[in-house]
Amino acid sequence: MQHHLNIFIQAVLSILRNRDRSLVVAGCLIAVLLPFVTAMAVSEGVREQAALSIDNGADLYVTRAQYGRNGPISLDKVAEFAEIPGVIKAIPRISGRTYLGEELAIVVGIDSSELINTGNQTRGKKLKSGEVRIGRTLAKRLELKKGDELRFFLFPAMPFTIVDFIDGDLSIWASSMVMLTFNDAATIFKLPGFASEILLYSRPGTEDAIAEHLSSLGKPWDMTPPLRIQTKSIVDQYINRGFDLQAGVFFLFYLTAFALSIPALLILSGFGRGARRKEIGILKATGWQTLEVLEMTCMENILLALLGSMLAVVLGMLWLKLFNGIGIAPLFISGISWIPDFNVPSLFTPMPVLFSFLFGIVLTMLGTVFTTWKTAITPPLTTMS
């Protein structure tokens, strides 16, 4: 054990002696690993916010099937759905998109304001007709403040008064959201008597039975479009599938960049190779075996990989927490600028950190082990000359 400890100490001393080479290799590792760690943290942060939204949402979402997509559903179904055994309450909601000036806004029309957490003490207050709550980030972009009036592009004749803001820290979707009453939303989208979905809240364990009951409604000769039922678990699967696909595409591109970085690191690892050859020649001349030289090189690589990956994680945290993910957030959050104007969610999990460390080891090993072995089997007089 003492023998290996001595080799480890020599590996540390070798890193310190070859300071320029160590800095070049560590810098190359950081440049390769930093985008990976940061992008994965943004992906996991957005996924976590989506999971929280699903957990705090309804148990079932019911719409009409329209060409394979969600279509509007009549308000006549609200009372019928509320009578289904296991259903606690059925609440219609309108959700859609329209423009406020030149900014795209998410419009949510719902009368049960207690279901929406606006992040402040006014959560329980119901909106009146002509009143809206607007995302703080969206209001900032439009230069609007409390008490100002706004008009929607789809229905400019009807003015709305801002009575409160929605904190953008709640989720990335809240930053561009506009909340108003259900009837006002129906007027804006010009679909009175219809909702974009009906939210069903059920007793624990009855979700599947309610979904089966809803699937049995209607008759084969009924020309009404069939119901489209999405349970909380189905929505969760859709969300995770989308994030897995997006993360997989990025990972594929990253592997390509990783493969292209190997030749670059092979060149960079040769920085100061003449001094390195002399150092190995001296070690061989003083009685070091080839395996001992390789062991010392592997320990150097592990230390450099650990240093590079840890610095990449620290810099990634600074990039996201201090600089709010400038330049990388749009890779995982569509429709935002390269300089986000809301707090970008991020979550650093152990797996990307472990992967970055393993990537670092692979890169450094590929760049140094073969050249070290080739130098170690060369006679010392040749390498020292």
Which oligomerization state do the chains in this entry correspond to? single chain
Count of the separate structural domains: 2
In angstroms, what separates the terminal alpha carbons? 34 Å
Total of DSSP H or I helical runs spanning 4+ residues: 11
Judged by helices, strands and strand pairing, the structural class is alpha+beta
Pattern of helices and strands:
HHEEEHEEEHEEEHEEHEHHHHH
In short:
It contains 11 helices and 12 strands. The chain is α+β, with helices and mostly antiparallel strands.
Keywords:
385 residues; two-stranded antiparallel ribbon; elongated; alpha+beta
Explain the overall architecture.
With 385 residues, the chain is an alpha+beta fold. It folds into 2 domains: 2-52 and 239-384, no CATH class; 73-195, no CATH class. The chain is 52% helix and 18% strand. It has helices at residues 2-17, 19-55, 76-82, 136-142, 182-189, 207-215, 232-268, 273-285, 290-322, 350-376, 380-384, and strands at 60-66, 69-71, 73-74, 87-100, 103-109, 131-135, 149-152, 155-166, 177-180, 194-195, 197-202, 227-231. The strands form 2 sheets. Strands 1, 2, 4, 5, 6, 7, 8, 9, 11 and 12 form a 10-stranded mixed beta sheet that branches. The chain has a two-stranded antiparallel sheet with strand order 3-10. A hairpin with a 2-residue loop joins strand 4 (87-100) and strand 5 (103-109). The longest helix is centred in the first third of the chain and has 37 residues, at 19-55. The chain is elongated, with a radius of gyration of 30 Å.
